[in-house]
UniProtKB/TrEMBL annotation, chain A:
Gene3D superfamilies found in the cross-reference section: MetI-like
Family statement drawn from the similarity comment of this UniProt entry: Belongs to the binding-protein-dependent transport system permease family.
Broad class of the protein's primary localization: membrane
Protein name per UniProt: Multiple sugar transport system permease protein
Bilayer topology annotation: Multi-pass membrane protein
UniProtKB/TrEMBL annotation, chain B:
PANTHER family linked to this entry: ABC TRANSPORTER PERMEASE PROTEIN MG189-RELATED, ABC TRANSPORTER PERMEASE PROTEIN MG189-RELATED-RELATED
Location within or outside the cell: Cell membrane
Designated name of the protein: Multiple sugar transport system permease protein
Major localization listed first in the record, in broad terms: membrane
Species this protein is from: Kribbella caucasensis
Keyword terms of this UniProt record: Cell membrane, Membrane, Sugar transport, Transmembrane, Transmembrane helix, Transport
Chain segments annotated as transmembrane: 21-44, 92-114, 121-148, 160-180, 201-223, 260-278
Keyword Membrane: yes
Length: 313, 293
């Protein structure tokens, strides 16, 4: 959308002024018809987007248990968060997931896409293969990897055992559990990024490479001085998209480890889920959600700014 | 289009034997890696689904079981209830798709063609929701679904609890509006001169020209709602109504390993098959929709 569709300039309605009296009734009618067509969006967004966002903010200052009417408690919910040692743990764990995800999962698709861009025959096969993990439903993928990670009869330990490595505890040790989650989610999410990088690489003008070659630039120099700078906006976007999605990690810790062992995989969203749906602490859950929302909104704002500058450049 | 894309490795480079050999071996290695990462898990799922559990434990590396048990698929389908869960998922996917398409197309039509005066404010308010991923309003959305304002109904354990919130997708509205914006205005004016009503303008002129954007929104909607986990987990507590994604997590603790893997195979088959059939459009859709993850 950012490339093809964003370019159409805003055209102000340049319709010549109609004879005023006769057209006024028609104008009101047109306005009503327009609102009528907006009604589905107004109702759906009103009830299930705008109101919950506003309400989440309100609940974070309230005590509510679904039965009695909610009471205002000021900053009590936020104060309760500071007293729960798990909040700090969850923030640290989430940052570890985000950080490991960047370390492992960020360069990989770029390198893969660079290799795939050099393929002249059979590129379609590579593309299908690289995107396959993305279409596997996350729950299935995670259960599958849970089976692979099994310390005793799992695929990974048996394979590594054949070459004399391991056995590794994977999900069962607080030292390696988070890394195991990151490996699976990197595998699961990489395909989309590879395809986006590839699409961006096709947009790099051939003349740039040719000119560099005539000037005697080696292949590595062409990668470093032409390909990477040309991809910079896309690299920035994918970086932010990955940050946005990894900060909200939930399904992996929920299914793989339920936050264990020793709370080493309790993430922020998992903690929100526990507060709300296991402890019934809706106010506290909403307070933590508000804090998470602030982080995400800042990231999204950067993202939107980048897309805008990218599509107009 | 048939010309190979320009890359850092030029035709001259490729004629140098050392570069050619290096490039070729990296390409082959990558292919090997992608086959392992892409097809490996799928093959291992099918193999696991027909293997007797003792063999999975005693000889996990065996490529194909000595005595395959294809009956596991049938018993998972009926005894574990995979058939029902798949049908639940399909109902959820279908309803979410319909609501998303309806909301996006009517809103896009209003914003782009009818342009009521409040349109720009509503459009802004809709786009603003992209800043707030729904995971952060998980709690308040849940409380809203428990008691919908004005209507006063409780949607918990009904699919409306998934269908209706699915429609609040700003990205779909954006796609539809941008697409309608690019349609030629002269057509609308001509239709109005011919006396077409607003409804006819939408159904006879705009929609028939909108197949690409309908396809993209549909594809995104179907793929997304098939994968959805956290929201159905929260709002569908009745085990008989759960979609396959939520049910699998419960089954994982109870079912025998081989039947569980058979159930997993059946849960991943539909999206994988749809992708293989439509792969050209999926890849194109990614390009079309820009960088939406």
């Amino acid at each position: 959308m950012t490339t093809a569709l964003a370019t159409r300039p805003e055209t102000p309605a340049a319709v010549p002024e109609p004879p005023v009296r006769r057209r006024r009734a028609a104008g009101v009618r047109r306005e009503l018809v327009g609102v009528l067509f907006l009604l589905p969006a107004l109702v759906i967004f009103g009830l299930f987007s705008w109101w919950p966002i506003l309400r989440g903010l309100l609940i974070s200052f309230q005590q509510t248990n679904l039965v009695d009417p909610a009471t205002w408690v000021g900053l009590e919910n936020f104060r309760a968060l500071t007293e729960d040692p798990l909040v700090g743990t969850a923030v640290q764990n989430t940052l570890l997931f985000v950080g490991l995800g960047l370390l492992i999962g960020f360069p990989a698709p770029l390198i893969l896409a660079a290799v795939m861009s050099t393929i002249r025959r059979g590129a379609g096969v590579y593309r299908v293969l690289v995107y396959l993990p993305v279409v596997i439903p996350p729950v299935v993928a995670i259960l599958l990897w849970k089976w692979f990670y099994d310390p005793g009869s799992g695929l990974f330990n048996t394979l590594l055992g054949q070459i004399g490595l391991g056995p590794y505890p994977w999900l069962q040790s607080s030292d390696t559990a988070m890394l195991s989650l990151v490996l699976e989610s990197t595998w699961a999410g990489m395909g989309g990024a590879v395809l986006i990088y590839l699409a961006a690489m096709t947009g790099i003008p051939a003349e740039l490479y040719e000119a560099a070659e005539t000037d005697g630039a080696s292949m590595w120099k062409r990668i470093w001085h032409i390909m990477l700078p040309q991809l910079r906006p896309v690299i920035g976007l994918l970086l932010l998209l990955q940050l946005l999605s990894t900060v909200q990690v939930f399904t992996e810790p929920y299914i793989f480890t339920q936050g264990g062992p020793d709370n080493s995989t309790v993430t922020v969203l998992l903690l929100i889920f526990r507060y709300a749906f296991q402890d019934g602490e809706y106010g506290q859950a909403a307070a933590l959600s508000v804090l998470l929302a602030i982080v995400l909104a800042v990231l999204s704002a950067i993202y939107l700014r980048l897309t805008r500058s990218w599509s107009t450049s | 289009m048939n010309e190979p894309m320009a890359t850092f490795a030029s035709s001259n480079d490729r004629q140098r034997p050392a570069v050619f050999a290096a490039l070729r071996s990296v390409q082959v290695l990558t292919l090997l890696l992608l086959v392992i990462a892409g097809l490996g898990p799928l093959y291992w799922t099918i193999k696991g689904a027909v293997s007797p559990p003792p063999e999975l434990l005693s000889n996990p590396l065996r490529l194909w079981p000595a005595e395959p048990e294809p009956g596991n698929f049938a018993s998972a389908f009926t005894e574990l209830g995979v058939g029902r869960y798949l049908s639940n998922t399909m109902q959820i996917v279908f309803g979410s798709w319909a609501v998303q398409l309806f909301v996006a197309l009517t809103a896009g039509f209003a914003f782009s063609v009818l342009k009521p005066r409040i349109g720009r404010y509503v459009y802004g308010a809709i786009l603003a929701t992209m800043f707030v991923p729904y995971t952060v309003s998980l709690v308040s959305l849940f409380l809203t679904v428990l008691h919908v304002p004005f209507l006063g109904v409780n949607l918990l354990d009904t699919y409306w609890a998934i269908w209706l919130p699915a429609g609040a997708n700003a990205f779909n509205v954006l796609l539809a509006t941008r697409f309608f914006d690019a349609l030629p205005r002269e057509l609308f004016d001509a239709a109005k001169v011919d006396g077409a009503s607003t409804w006819q303008l939408l159904t006879r002129i705009v929609l028939p020209m909108s197949r690409p954007v309908i396809a993209v929104i549909s594809l995104l909607a179907v793929m997304h709602s098939w994968k959805e986990f956290i929201w159905p987990l929260v709002v569908i507590t009745d085990p008989a109504r759960q979609p396959i994604s939520v049910a699998l997590v419960n089954l994982a603790d109870q079912a025998p390993l081989d039947e569980l893997i058979a159930a997993m195979a059946m849960a991943l088959a539909p999206p994988v098959l749809v992708f293989l059939v439509l792969q050209r459009y999926v890849v194109a859709g990614l390009g079309f929709s820009g960088v939406k993850g």
